[in-house]
Amino acid sequence: MRANLLILGGTTEATAFANAAAERGLTGTVSFAGRVDRPKRQPLPQRIGGFGGISGLVDHLQAEGITHVIDATHPFAAQMSRNAIAACAQAGVPLIALTRAAWTATQGDDWTHVPDIAGAVAALDQPAQRVMLAVGRMHLDDFAPNPQHFYLLRLVDPPKDPPPFPDHHVLVSRGPFTAADDAMLMQKHRIDLVVSKNAGGTGAYAKITAARALGLPVLMIDRPDIPARAEANSVAEVMAWLDHAGVDRGV
Ligand code: NAP
């Protein structure tokens, strides 16, 4: 069977999978939500923008003759992942998620878990501190109830509007980051607390290692729940799944 893959992207893992698929001569498209100004260049054709909910995605799968969906979105992109599960079930298109294991606290870590962004906002309802807020620019407005803190913001693109808290510093950088650099950054800004999503993987882990090295507490936002689906933890596992489904290698 000739593949026509839809790769739901926006992550390092999605780009790695797209590279491997292109090397094999597999055909498909990488899809971005359009959250960042310059998405990473892909070796396969790309499309940008939402599908229009579950029904829009069903239409897309059918109109484009998609044979397989690889959901390689970020673990916090739960809406997209839920929509993909429902749409693939409706359209009868096989789906696999390329996921990364969540981080777990290790010796020296001082984590307080919160279930979601709202939990992080509630936990910050305390006297002013110097906070490294690593939650992405989409969620900055949520932190408006706690304008007393200094916030160090590291973002892929500058915020579209000024953040709703007066005392902040914006660093625009896509990474990758090293633990040594992140430790220096935290020291330079005299950070007291790091707020992080439990992204998993290596790309965003430097700040966690740096916080441990400096003995800083981390407010760890736990992952949203996503219904059960086929999951792979590596590009090779997704390729094996496609092989098993009888997809032509293309080259
Ligand atoms: P989300 O809340 O789960 O998705 C909201 C809506 O955005 C979806 O319903 C869908 O719109 C659209 N969308 C999301 N991902 C899409 C994709 N890859 N292609 C086409 N449409 C997409 O997603 P999010 O948390 O805002 O994340 C958006 C993108 O940023 C994802 O691609 C994700 O991998 C990437 N990202 C997210 C985070 C994070 O912390 N959330 C971090 C790094 C990268 P329709 O309903 O109209 O289809």
Brief write-up:
The protein is an alpha/beta fold and 251 residues long. It is 29% helix and 20% strand.
CA gyration radius, whole angstroms? 20 Å
Give the overall shape. elongated
Quantity of strands, as a count: 12
> How much helicity do the residues have?
25-40%
Proportion of residues in β-strands: 15-25%
Number of helices: 7
Q: Spell the H/E element sequence.
A: EHEEHEHEEHEEEHEHEEH
CATH architecture descriptor of the largest domain: 3-Layer(aba) Sandwich
CATH class descriptor name of the largest domain: Alpha Beta
Give, in spatial order, the strands making up the sheet with the most strands: 3-2-1-4-5-12
The major sheet is characterized as:
6 strands, parallel
Mean pLDDT: 95
Would you identify the regions where 5 or more consecutive residues have pLDDT less than 50? none
Distance between the termini: 13 Å
* CATH level-four homologous superfamily name of the largest domain: NAD(P)-binding Rossmann-like Domain
CATH fold type of the largest domain: Rossmann fold
Estimated structural class:
alpha/beta
Ligand set: NADP nicotinamide-adenine-dinucleotide phosphate
Give a verbal description of the structure.
By secondary structure, this protein is of the alpha/beta class. The chain folds into two domains: 5-101 and 225-244, Rossmann fold (3-Layer(aba) Sandwich); 111-221, Rossmann fold, CATH 3.40.50. The protein contains seven helices and twelve strands. It has helices spanning 12-23, 53-64, 78-91, 117-123, 179-188, 206-214, 235-244; strands spanning 5-8, 28-32, 46-48, 68-71, 95-98, 111-114, 130-134, 150-155, 168-172, 193-197, 218-221, 231-232. Helix 2 (53-64) crosses helix 3 (78-91) and helix 5 (179-188) packs across helix 6 (206-214). The mean pLDDT is 95. The chain binds NADP nicotinamide-adenine-dinucleotide phosphate (NAP). Residues 8-11, 31-33, 35, 50-53, 56-57, 73-74, 76-80, 83, 136, 138, 197 line the site of NADP nicotinamide-adenine-dinucleotide phosphate.
